[in-house]
């Protein structure tokens, strides 16, 4: 099967997707930008040098959106004439709600939940070196039980890629952990494990988790609860890691708080529920950096 993909956002996840698309025999190019050199290093030490081709200006049939959530609509705007209802858009991002205000015509959207961790540094002479700290599961889904025809070919070459009919639940399960761990580590400038070691943070940790469970029970009948226990387990398993939100704050970049805790606040507002601890921490994170 020969498909041509465009990739919007050539950071950590976009580069990983580009690599596996090529492994599966699909052609690809970047959307809206010139060619970009990348080096991708896996946790086992394997490295691959990639030259990601620049935009070909063609109509976009298959698109991977891998920008930061806040950049989604501005980045898509100049591509709108090349998109249509026949376009498939795979949203490979953290957080939820980045496409809520996407104007028509609407493409077919497939959501992704990526659980791999990576960091990057400049390459000598230009480009970026992407270091995968851990390659974990990547889930795709659009609410239907059957994946598209191209999915099997891609899954044969992308380790731990799977299709999930329950993608909305999977998105919320990841969001719930990010909404506890990310803002606390960013606010207190600590690694994930410090959330468990510092007893002063436990009340906020628990309050954030309790508010998530209260909201999710209203919106998702299948919600398993136990967000605090799952967040503690993740913080312990990734004790030495720096969250993406902490990294953004340290670098002076805008965070994805609007699409993590802010998304929860918007959902709660629609049903008349208050989430005071999430309201508080969103304000505190925004005070650290305002675009």
Rounded radius of gyration (Å): 19 Å
Strand order of the largest sheet: 2-1-5-6-7-10-11
Order of helices and strands: EHEEEEHEEEEEHEHHHHHHH
The tally of strands reads 11
Q: Might you state the CATH topology name of the largest domain?
A: Rossmann fold
List unreliable stretches of 5+ residues.
none
Overall morphology? globular
Percent of residues in beta strands: 15-25%
Domain Ketopantoate reductase C-terminal: 166-285
Function: Catalyzes the NADPH-dependent reduction of ketopantoate into pantoic acid.
Keywords: NADP, Oxidoreductase, Pantothenate biosynthesis
Domain Ketopantoate reductase N-terminal: 5-142
Account of the protein in words:
This protein is of the alpha/beta class and 291 residues long. It has 2 domains: 4-165, NAD(P)-binding Rossmann-like Domain (Rossmann fold, 3-Layer(aba) Sandwich); 169-288, N-(1-d-carboxylethyl)-l-norvaline Dehydrogenase, domain 2 (Orthogonal Bundle). 37% of the residues lie in helices and 19% in strands. The protein has helices at residues 12-23, 72-76, 151-155, 167-188, 194-197, 202-219, 227-237, 244-250, 261-270, 276-288; strands spanning 4-8, 27-30, 36-41, 47-52, 62-65, 88-91, 108-114, 117-122, 128-134, 138-141, 161-163. It has a 7-stranded mixed sheet with strand order 2-1-5-6-7-10-11. A 4-stranded mixed sheet has the order 4-3-9-8, covered by helices on one side. α1 (12-23) links the parallel β1 (4-8) and β2 (27-30). α4 (167-188) runs antiparallel to α6, α4 packs parallel to α8 and α9 (261-270) runs antiparallel to α10 (276-288). It is globular.
């Amino acid at each position: 099967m020969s498909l041509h993909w465009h990739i919007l956002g050539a950071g950590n996840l976009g580069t990983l997707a580009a690599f596996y698309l090529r492994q599966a025999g699909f052609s690809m190019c970047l959307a809206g930008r010139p060619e970009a050199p990348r080096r991708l290093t896996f946790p086992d030490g394997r490295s691959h040098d990639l030259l990601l081709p620049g935009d070909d200006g063609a109509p976009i049939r298959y698109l991977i959106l891998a920008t930061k959530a806040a950049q989604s609509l501005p980045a898509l705007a100049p591509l709108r004439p090349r998109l249509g209802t026949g376009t498939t858009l795979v949203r490979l991002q953290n957080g939820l709600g980045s496409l809520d205000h996407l104007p028509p015509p609407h493409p077919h959207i497939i959501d992704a939940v990526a659980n791999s961790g990576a960091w990057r540094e400049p390459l000598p002479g230009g480009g970026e070196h992407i270091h995968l700290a851990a390659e974990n599961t990547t889930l795709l889904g659009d609410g239907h039980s059957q994946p598209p025809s191209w999915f099997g070919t891609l899954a044969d070459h992308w380790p731990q890629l799977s299709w999930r009919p329950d993608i909305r639940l999977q998105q919320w399960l990841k969001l719930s952990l990010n909404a506890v761990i990310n803002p606390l580590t960013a606010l207190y400038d600590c690694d994930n494990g410090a959330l468990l070691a510092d007893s002063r943070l436990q009340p906020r940790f628990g309050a954030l988790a309790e508010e998530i469970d209260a909201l999710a029970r209203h919106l998702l009948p299948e919600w398993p609860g136990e967000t605090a226990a799952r967040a503690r387990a993740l913080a312990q398993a990734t004790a030495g890691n720096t969250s993406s939100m902490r990294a953004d704050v340290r670098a002076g970049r805008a965070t994805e708080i609007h699409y993590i805790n802010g998304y929860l606040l918007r959902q709660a507002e629609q049903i008349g529920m208050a989430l005071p601890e999430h309201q508080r921490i969103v304000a505190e994170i925004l005070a650290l950096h305002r675009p």
